[in-house]
Amino acid sequence: MKNRLLIKLCCIIGAGTVLLFWMIDILSSQAEQSMSSIADEHKQELRDFAKQAEYIYLKQGEAALEVWLDDLREQEKTWIAVAYSDIKPLANSDFTYRYEQGIWLGRSIDWMIHLYFEYNPIMDIPFSDKNTHFLIQLPQRMRPGKYYTYADSAIQFALPLVLLSLLSLVLYQHLMSPLRRLENATKQFSEGNFDVRINASLDSRDDELTALADTFDHMADRTSKLIASQRQMLSDLSHELRTPLTRMDMAVDFLELQLDPKKAADRLRYEAINMRELVEDALTLAYLDTERPKLNNETFDLAELINVICEDSRFEYPKHTLITHLPDQALIKNSSQRALGQGIENVIRNALHYTPTDKNVMVSLSKTDTLYSLVIQDEGQGVPEELLEDIFKPFFRVDKARTLSDAQSELKIGQKRSGFGLGLSLALRQVEAVKGTIKASNYYSADAQKLGLLITIELPCVSAES
Predict the structure, then answer these.
(1) What is the arrangement of strands in the sheet containing 360-367, beginning at the earlier edge strand?
(2) Over the chain, what is the mean pLDDT?
(3) pTM for the complete prediction?
């Protein structure tokens, strides 16, 4: 699923937001409800006021009650009164007894107080006869919800701050945990630990960060392989250059001593040509390994290209028999004539190089619906089965298993030596650059006798464009 991380973050943030509003609503309601009732001690104090007013009224009279009420008003700084609940109906209306008993001149002290009202409500405590009421506007000191403003502020501001901070921390940890691993892996990689990988530690995830880890691991794999390949190539190249340089030193000594100067000059020229070809092939191989170019911008006749290569090879190897089975035309699109030509040429030259002069090299091209299959078959001694994949490695040679032709064992100025073990390596990279494949196998006679090496190159008729 695409955008897994986005979906995950949306779910976490959405759930956190819903939880936040739910908690704010619940806590606000509970805080308001718990703070809207008059405190029990204040309720008892109001009941005591009513009892005392009733006692004075009944025992001392209305005048004494008036004096007491004036003192209480001054003391509590509020409005206080005593009244009858005498309700007179109009138009001969009749109230039931239940209705008359339910009439209140003020609020019961057990009712909740609206915290949002600016004025204090009038509380009603009936006397024993239920018809006389002690009325008092709730004194400010008895008003509930003294700390409601602070509680409401904490619920509205502090609670969201805490919850959002926790949510941010969760999201931060969820995002930064793989990023820290990526940072540590990158640091280790930059310090030379090319085996470090991070995707194995993110198996529990399956999102964009996992894709980033896959990309890093892929980059690390390719980079480490390139570095190892380049190091190996430099080591092999330096080893390969020692021998021709030693021979050149000897040839220079022969020239200085005037010992067969012509042969010494020929040796210098021969070694210089081979060294140049070795360096050029090594640089080409390094370019193909490092850059991995996509060469797919040409359309040409593959049969004609192979035919030209075979004609050049017959000229270069006049004592060998090169047999071709090619169609009249084999159009290939979105490919590279130069890269493919060099790759095929290297394979054919390798086959001629290891085939004795009395044997044959056969080149055949066939076509399916989507692929061209090019087969180069020589009659050398083949390659040990366990080394069939190794022959495509740079500087790998199996001279012990493959016998050089007699003609190639002689020193011939101007003729390519093809003995550094780079030909098939270049062929592999060049064929892969045009989206093709190449593989090697031995072929045998009916009596299981090894007859030679068979290289198969498969090329798409139309390569995918970049």
Answers:
(1) 321-325, 360-367, 371-377, 450-460, 437-444
(2) 81
(3) 0.52
